[in-house]
Amino acid sequence: MAGRRRIALVLFALVAGCGGSASTHPSTRPSTPVEAPPLAPVHHRPPRPPGTLPQTHAFPSSTTAGFHTEMAALWRGVVTGHVRDAMPAFFPEAAYAQVKAIASPRKDWTDRLVHGYALDLAAAHALVRPGAQLVRVDVPSHYGHWVPPGACYNGVGYFEVPNARVVYRQAGELRSFGIASMISWRGVWYVVHLGAVGQSGVVDEPEAGAGASAPSSTC
C-alpha cells in the first residue's frame, strides 16, 4: 500500500508540473478593453481677409496661380456683365479703408470705385461677343512704380501699374483691351480702374491683336 501511495504522489507531482502554476501562465479570462480618452476638439481659425492685414513693400507677380485666378474672375465679370462675378479681382474694401486718408473711404469705395467698375464691365460685356475665350493678361511690370503715402490722398503707399492688356480670342481672331490701373496690396495686383481713370462706362483702348501698353503716372 505504501508503495502504491508513493507512485500516486509521483504521478500527481508530474501532472502538476506539466500543467504549470497559475502564476506562470496567462489567464484565459477576456481582458477588459482600455478606452482611449476623447480627443479635444481642434478649432481652426479662419484666415484673415488680406485687406485687414497691413501693407507690405512686396512687388506683385503676374505669373502666380492666385493672379490667374483673379483674372479668370475678371473675365467672368466681362462675360456675364455682373460685377459680383469680377469682385475677386478688385481692390479689397478693407485695404482701401487703410489706404485712403479721406473722411469716408468705404463709402467712396462702394459709391465711386465699385460703381465705376460695374459700368466698365458692362461696357466690356457689350464689346466681347459670346464664345470669346480669355487667352492671358499682360502686365507691364517694368512700368510698375511705388505711390508713396501723402500722394493722391493716401495714408498708405502701394505699387501701381498702368495699362495692362486683357488678351482674348474671338471668332478665331486675337483681340484685346486695357486695364487702366492696377494697384498692389501685400504683393498682389488688384484692378482699381478698369475702363479709365476718372471716367466710367468705357472700354480702355480696345484693339485687334494683343495691343501694347504705355507708361503713365496714375494713382
Structure, briefly:
By secondary structure, this protein is α+β, with helices and mostly antiparallel strands. It contains five helices and six strands, in the order H-H-H-H-H-E-E-E-E-E-E.
The biggest beta sheet is recorded as: 6 strands, antiparallel
Which stretches are low in confidence, meaning pLDDT under 50 for 5 or more residues running? 1-27
H/E element sequence: HHHHHEEEEEE
Structural class: alpha+beta
Give the averaged pLDDT, no decimals.
86
Q: What is the total tally of β strands?
A: 6
Q: Figure out the total of helices.
A: 5
Gyration radius, rounded: 36 Å
Quick one: overall form?
Answer: globular
Task: List the topology elements.
Blueprint: H1 2-19, H2 65-80, H3 83-86, H4 93-99, H5 105-127, E1 133-138, E2 145-147, E3 158-170, E4 173-184, E5 189-193, E6 204-208
Helix pairs in contact: 2-5, 4-5
Describe the fold and architecture.
With 219 residues, the protein is an alpha+beta fold. The chain has a domain of 153 residues. It is built from 5 helices and 6 strands; from the N terminus they run αααααββββββ. Strands 1, 2, 3, 4, 5 and 6 form a 6-stranded antiparallel sheet that branches. α4 crosses α5. It is globular and about 65 Å long. The N terminus is likely disordered.
Quick tags:
alpha+beta, 31% helix, 20% strand, 219 residues, 6-stranded antiparallel β-sheet
